[in-house]
Amino acid sequence: MPMPDIPVTVHSLRNLRPLPNHSGLSGAELLRAELYDGTAVVVKRSHGDSDFFQRLLGHRVNLEYQLWADGTFDLLPQGVSSPSIAAWLHGDDATVVMRDLGEDILGGGHIFTQQECIRLLQRLDELHTSGIRPAKTTSLDAIVNTFSLARVRRADPPASIIHDIERGWEAFVSLAPQGFGNQVLEIVRRPDVLVSALSRCPPSFCHGDVAAVNMAWSGDQLVLIDWGQVFIGPAALDIARFLPSGLRLSEIDNDWFLDQYAIVADNRFDKRALSLSLLATLVWYGWRKALDATEGQDPALRSIEKSGILWWCEQAAAGLRELASPSRGD
Questions:
Q1: Which of the residues 31, 37, 162, 302 could staple to 296 if both were Cys, CB 3.0 to 4.6 A apart?
Q2: Number of C-alpha atoms within 13 angstroms, CB side, residue 304?
Q3: Segments making up each domain of the chain, as ranges
Q4: DSSP helix/strand/coil, 322
């Protein structure tokens, strides 16, 4: 991705205005702007005292800034890139300047084709096998345990989030096979054994938030934005965390996608790591899936999500069996 013709500093930015339709848990501020040479950019300002999601993940300073500062984005494999072109820090407040990808971002309504899924898996495999090891990453505990009520309360959350999490897990228990929901809730409340098992899997450099809203294609290159959840852990966890939103509008099912992942990973494929990662993904986001299944505005999507809960429970059951059995390294 070509760089702008001029150095990018705070004084280079012109015509800053809020990015429309931006919402989410993070308190980061997103703005559109132009540089002196007319390059369209997006400016992400993260304030240490107001970015809820940053606090939730345990980062005093925005992780995306830290990855820029330590040169991680310069080490990305050829098939993967970040649109970041500059970053700076003022106290604990970070600014990251990115190329404005505009309508090239796939977005939450994107419907993936089979060929596109295979291409995505190939690019992620390049990322996972790159050997990159940044100085700062998100801990596996924070990745798995992001929305535990104890962690959320410590991060001074928006008023609604605790109620959403509590209501979501209540809905999950009602939708899951009898008795199984409470087994999952035991791991939600005490995830240490799961985190420990994941930490013993072969480690990879993982984006942490692979979703259509965070990706674009530049030719055959995968452009990923929002690197604030980068972690070192099993590659399968990066793949598993794509599934809650990735294919729900597509005719492609999760099993097909995971079969393709096994093909792309080839001899690096780790069935145990995948089972644990699918369980970890349900621990991370099961409450939200249950809310979508019971309170979503679109009846068709509610039905899809309801059926999806049963699939996730099957995967989590396999993960619980793996968790109960000794790992090959023990």
A1: 302
A2: 17
A3: 10-104, 114-324
A4: helix
- Residue 317 DSSP code: H
Q: 324 Cβ partners below 8 Å, 6+ apart?
A: none
- Scan for tokens 């848990």, then name that residue: 25
Q: At what angle do helices 299-324 and 192-199 cross, to 10 degrees?
A: 70
pTM for the whole structure: 0.93
Whether residue 195 is predicted with pLDDT greater than 90 in this model: the reply is: yes
List, in order, residues 6 or more apart from 219 with CB less than 8 Å away.
Answer: none
Q: For residue 248, how many C-alpha atoms fall within 13 Å in the half-sphere facing its CB?
A: 24
Domain 114-324 has CATH 3.40.50.2300: no
Cβ atoms of 81 and 222 within 8 Å: the answer is yes
Taking only the tens place, the pLDDT of each residue in 117-146 is 999 999 999 999 999 999 999 999 999 999
The beta strands (E) that lie in 37-182 are given as 40-46, 80-81, 84-90, 93-99
DSSP one-letter string for 163-200: HHHHHHHHHHHHHSSTTHHHHHHHHHH--HHHHHHHHT
Task: Pick one of 3.20.20.70, 3.30.200.20, 2.60.210.10, 3.30.720.10 as the CATH number of 10-104.
Answer: 3.30.200.20
